[in-house]
Amino acid sequence: MRRILTHAVFAGLPRIGVVILLLLLFTASAVPALANDVLTYHNDLSRTGQNLNETILTTSNVNSAGFGLLFTIKVDGNIDAQPLYVSGLTIGGTPHNVVYTVTENDSAYAFDADTGTQLWKVSAKMAGEIVPSAKTLGCNQIGPTLGITATPVIDRSSGQHGTIYLVAMSADSSGNYYQRLHALDLTTGAEEFGGPVTVQAQYAGSGAGSQNGTVTFDPKQYAERVGLLLLNGVIYTGWTSHCDIQPYTGWLMGYNQSTLAQTSVLNLTPNGSEGSIWQSGAAMASDGSNIFFLDANGTFDTTLNSQGFPSQGDFGNAFLKVSTSGGLAVADYFAMYNTVIQSSKDRDFGSGGALLLPPQVDGGGVTRYLAVGAGKDGNIYVVDQTNMGKFNATSNKIYQQIKSVLGSGMYEMPAYFNGNVYFGPYLGSLQQFTFSQAKLSTSPASVTAISFGYPGTIPSISANGTANGIVWAVEHAKPSILHAYDATNLANELYNSSQAANNRDRLGNASHFGVPTIMNGKVYVGTTTDVAVYGLLGGK
Question: pLDDT confidence of 540, banded at 50, 70, 90?
Fold first, then answer.
């Protein structure tokens, strides 16, 4: 459909008209079902992180004099997922704006977004089960317990009142581990569609942990860290390991959103090892039919078949495009010329998140559909979604590469707004890069005065159309600090939560991959103990 529109509608338009129409189409496809909802990780399927319908917060009123901490909402465990937001939902006969959050204690909550009142709470554990401890699993990357890690996804039209989908890990007294997909009613938290369902999978291959030519998914070895993706009626989950504890391979699975039946399974390293999907918690992106993501360090077959694909089907440490038509299959990819060396040094591509960009018109008048990704090597990789570049043993045959500009590497998801891409690298400033004629600037247009420690920062954007753009970012100090910057110039800091006297706006310790959610004049940040809610003070 996108290509049909491009040829039929754009013919004869002046170049500026093409640009405007393309941006309008991108914006329409990028926003959630309702303008005042955040239903998925980083706001949309492109994972831009932008809310373009924020009319309350502006670059003039976000300052320590009139903006600050309004209240905190206590929860029972660490929040690693991004809070989600549903506006105007009737619960118990009363309309509410609702913020949803999940914890590593296997709890899911619905709160009134304006008062913090708890509307419901449910546990994802089954009777007699416990939440696994990080210590028991020998991994402290997620903890101290491993319950619900990934950002859920919401469909307001699913079920009787709308549905929130999430994945939870648990264990029984016999030492058996479980990963389950839950579908909860938005108004009550009740299980829907006969759920939950236990995540199980097998795939043909001789890879790590295989037996008799079959690789089997072991729930103890994996965590669902990437945010869930809802695409054309299917919930997609991607799986990572606990601290690279062997054996593990790379799994991608789909489930029917109405029946919770498994629809498709793809293993990305079926004849190798590693190659997991973690992206520092970022959800996989989509153009509406294909799935895009960065795969982590693992086996990559440098011997290619006649189509230029790895001969054994092992795609570790690569930028992947996966087709969902007729099942899951890698449709295209890009792998660095030195991908094997990078994997051996644990400098994986998969530490960052894939961002799909709005259509760009280059200097020759050609419309480009681009995507950007960055990992631990500190480079920015811009690929053409229609021809990603595949693998070449001597050089990277991609659309654009910008070398060594991202500090000590990316463990975070970038954001997009109004022709700009914002990166928050480890041990580096938050940086603004700008597109011109479908090329990204080779150096930042502006940077923040401060450098962000480990793991960097995942920016989110609020704006009213293209006006009053604000970049929100969490600095992972102790305690963490919420920052707000002018999106047109990151050197202009509008606010941070350490400015007011007497710790008025003190933020707790935010999850190291946590993402702020901005909606309807408020900013929601998950921490190890609560959801901190910021907004205009005194009802201004």
Answer: low
**Whether the Cβ atoms of residue 145 and residue 133 lie closer than 8 Å to each other:** yes
| The two structure tokens encoding residue 178 | 């479980």
Q: Distance between CA 278 and CA 61 in Å, rounded?
A: 37
Instruction: Return d(Cα 267, Cα 261) in angstroms, integer.
Output: 18
454: left (phi over 0), alpha (psi -120 to 50) or beta: beta
| Nearest Cα residue to 380 out of 418, 361, 354, 416 | 354
Determine contact, residues 298/272, Cβ cutoff 8 Å.
yes
> pLDDT tens digits, residue range 193-227?
999 999 999 999 999 999 999 999 999 999 999 99
Identity of residue 527: T
Q: Which tokens sit at 200?
A: 């199980």
Distance, CA of 156 to CA of 153 (rounded, Å): 10
Q: Alpha-carbon distance 531 to 496, whole Å?
A: 17
Q: What per-residue confidence (pLDDT) applies to 143?
A: 87
Nearest to 185 by CA among 126, 110, 113, 237: 110
Cα separation, 399 vs 377, whole angstroms? 18
Q: Burial level of 286, CB count in 10 A (0-12/13-18/19+)?
A: buried
Query: Could you give the CA distance from residue 41 to residue 284 in angstroms, rounded to a whole number?
Result: 9
CATH classification of 31-397+405-539, choosing from 3.40.190.150, 3.40.630.30, 2.140.10.10, 2.40.50.100?
2.140.10.10
Residue keyed to tokens 């960055």: 374
In the 3-class helix/strand/coil scheme, how is 463-510 assigned residue by residue?
A: EECCEEEEEEEEECCCCCEEEEEECCEEEEEEEECCCCHHHCCCCCCE
pLDDT in tens, 295-319: 999 999 999 999 999 999 999 999 9
Q: Cβ(63)–Cβ(494) under 8 Å? A: yes
Distance CA 98, CA 89 (A): 7
Give the span between the Cα atoms of 467 and 62, in whole angstroms. 14
Sign, Cα dihedral of 274, 282, 222, 158: negative
CA distances from 37 to 31, 155, 197, 258 (A): 9, 11, 27, 21
Between the alpha carbon of residue 539 and those of residues 114, 122, 231, 254, 471, the distances in Å are 11, 32, 38, 44, 22
Distance of CA 193 to the CA centre of its chain: 26
Q: Which residues contact 282 (CB under 8 A, 6 or more apart)?
A: 41, 42, 47, 226, 227, 352, 353, 354, 413, 458
- Give 494: exposed, middle or buried? Use CB within 10 Å, 0-12, 13-18, 19+: buried
In whole angstroms, how far apart are CA 335 and each of 151, 347, 365, 414, 522?
A: 27, 13, 28, 20, 40
Tokens of 116: 């913090």
- Angle at alpha carbon of residue 119, lines to 115 and 120, rounded to 5°: 145
Rounded Cα distance between 279 and 275, Å, is: 12
Give the pTM.
0.93
